[in-house]
TrEMBL record:
Residues 9-48 form the F-box domain. Coiled coil: none annotated. This is FXL22 protein. It comes from Sitta europaea. Keywords: Ubl conjugation pathway. The keyword Glycoprotein does not apply. The gene is Fbxl22. Pfam families: F-box-like. GO terms for cellular component: cytoplasm. Signal peptide: none annotated.
Length: 226
């Protein structure tokens, strides 16, 4: 029996074992396999290991998407997550190329994937509070939001959770250094049913402007001299 003689359900099951590139390559072989590739049921879960993967035309976005993960663990994450004023010209140029990649993708998800249930972002240093706010408003069924090492996330995201995260059951904001204890406490008070985790977030040193840092160091030196 030839593969194209299998019914749609069997073909979808076979495709489910393939990565995105393999699915795309197989879809190029005939119209029937292209139809399988374009079936929304195949795209209920998407995982990405790099922002570059978001630009590849090897997947579909639509209402069928339920689980989305963008986890960037490369050493380059450290470059994009340090304060802008500390970066050299090479680092700034590198980060500029990725600045809007994840944000634009998530805005697309917000507009096209209203049934999203779970979102995991790790190492996405350019994601902002406004982006998460828009997604919470557009995906009212979101049950799990896990953010790790997303340095531009602040208490505004926590406030958005209390206002628009009615379905949220799990919230992780690990290694998000601009989250505060006060913001976490508001979530605990207003959303007591949410399983909240914030490893190393409120206990880390938040971003500070160069002049503020200089003044703190200057004050410390005076104390040492005294």
């Amino acid at each position: 029996m030839h593969i194209i003689q299998l019914n749609q359900e069997c073909l979808l099951h076979l495709f489910s074992f393939l990565d995105k590139n393999s699915r795309k390559n197989l879809a190029k072989t005939c119209h029937k396999l292209l139809e399988v590739f374009q079936d929304p049921l195949l795209w209920s879960c998407l995982n990405f290991d790099s922002p570059v993967d978001l630009k590849k035309n090897n997947f579909l976005l639509g209402p069928a998407l339920k689980y989305l993960s963008i986890c960037w663990y490369s050493e380059r994450v450290k470059v994009c997550n340090i304060e802008d004023w500390m970066k050299n010209s090479f680092q700034k140029d590198f980060c500029k190329r990725h600045e809007n990649t994840v944000t634009d993708f998530l805005l697309d998800v917000s507009n096209r994937c209203p049934n999203l249930l779970s979102l995991t972002l790790s190492g996405c240093g350019h994601i902002t509070d406004d982006c998460i706010l828009h997604l919470l408003k557009s995906c009212p069924n979101l049950k799990s939001l896990k953010l790790e090492n997303c340095v531009r996330i602040t208490d505004h995201t926590l406030e958005a959770v209390t206002l628009h995260g009615a379905s949220l059951q799990t919230l992780h904001v690990d290694f998000c250094r601009n989250i505060t204890q006060a913001g976490l406490q508001r979530v605990r008070e207003k959303c007591p049913s949410v399983m909240l985790r914030a490893e190393r977030s409120a206990n880390m040193i938040p971003d500070s402007k160069p002049e503020k840092k200089f003044m703190l160091e200057k004050a410390s030196r005076k104390l040492v001299q005294l």
